[in-house]
Here is the input.
Amino acid sequence: MNAIAVVLFLAGAGSWIEFRLKSDLLEESTRDLQMRAHLVNDAIARSQRPPQEEVQHLAEVGGTRITIIQRDGTVVADSEAMAANMENHGERPEVRDALARGVGSAIRYSDTRRSDMLYVAYAADGQAQVVRVAIHLEQVNARLRVAEHTILLTVAALFIAGMGLSFLVARFIVKPIEAMRSAAQEIARGNLDATIEMTRRDEFGELVAAFNTMSRELKSRVGQIDANRRELSAIMDNMAEGLLLVDSDGVIAVNNRAAARMLESKDSSLAGSRLWEIIRLPEVDELLASLPNLTEPRRIWVEDRTHSQRRVLAFVATPLFDTGKGERHAVLLISDATEDQKLLEMRQDFVANVSHELKTPLTSISAYCETLLDGADKDETVRRPFLEKIQVNSARLTKLVSDILNLSRLESGMGDESRKQIDLNDLVARSVQRHADVADQKNVKLSMHPMAEPAIALVNDEDMTEAVDNLITNAVSYTQAGGSVDVTVSRNAYELQVEVKDTGCGISAEALPRVFERFYRVDKARSRALGGTGLGLAIVKHVALKHGGHVEADSEVGVGSSFRVTLPAMPTQRE
Ligand code: ADP
Here is the structure.
């Protein structure tokens, strides 16, 4: 490429020099011939010799062809031809110009001399003849060739010098620039490992070193940014809450996986979508509309009515902030608050139920007390039964409060630390023992079926005793005289089970799934009459769950019920 440019430049320069030289030579020759024509004209004017003779003499001396032409074009004399044989020269351009302006010149092929000639004609004012001198163009060309050779040699020398220079330029300037350009392109394409291999001590060497340092620095910065980005996206994607970055129009800029899941989008990226088109809830519209006025985070709970299953979503919106890209965005956190809402409602129900349950015995107690104070205490026949009623209701209250406290203790997780390895055979035997009298009185056959080997479980003695007590109390209570209650401890590879099976009244299929709910009773009046609080099975369930186990119940109305508490087993000594 460089060579072509140098050749073209030198060829152009050479041609131009040659052209200039040629035109200068011709100009100079023309001027020389003009001068000669003057001299010839003067010489002929002064000469005594006939024109033909004089012309030949002067031509020999001057080395030029000389022609004398009359104004009418008739050739009078010619140094190289017979004038008489020559045609009229009046129309020769140089002669015409000389006659018109005094001098004229022309380059033409001469038939007489059979070569290209340079003619110059001169006509002095008032003279009857025109003097024409001519030289062979070959004479001019010979000088030109000498000049051409010189030019060619110069051009060749310049070409070699140019090539050498361009080689040096390519080697020392273009090559490093090219290397830097391709490395920069590599970096722009994302290959941050691109460096330049070059060891030079000049400015280019310094430039290359600076470039390589810049490339390494860039790689480390990009790596740092990439690590930060990955860390951030790992945090975002592992968040349980849905996270959205939205602008004031509700257009989503960024979201995490949880947000896409909660908004039930098929695409994991919601960027560019409008939140109010994805989730059409007036509360969310209102929250978005309030963003420009927010000064502190705002939290709302929304029941998603568009959903088939009951779903409550909690939205927390931050005030709008500048993202640094000239945009204003807010962060929206979405969490599934369905369980929280249920818990809240359960608590509210529980408080209402507790108040109600407490109110009934308290009202009775206060009514009996009032009646006694109003004078009934004087009446022996009334006083004792009234006091007994007060006692029964107080006991009921005590049982209720103790059950409530137990339940809340179980829920709070207190007592977990006091678990011990306990043989359930012993624990269940003690409980059966405690209920033996009541069962006897009711004529219910209460039997215990322990395991042959120890049934070791890691349990809180008090809680587990409470659970087994509740199951046996229920079984004995809801079994009529003549019936039986069988308490069995058994084990499979990993689990221990305590089963309390009775031949009592049984529970209907509709009621069975609800018996573990707090305050749920199949027959309220009967439960109360039997001293039940409606919390017994709720306590059993909590104890089982707290110990990593579960409860089950089977029942058939009129046939009997079976309640089973299953717990993880501890390995026995023999294992
Ligand atoms: P309660 O204090 O009323 O016994 P529980 O939570 O222990 O409360 O039991 C809830 C309800 O389940 C009881 O009211 C009763 O209707 C029913 N139930 C519990 N155990 C039995 C059983 N062994 N046989 C029949 N019904 C039972």
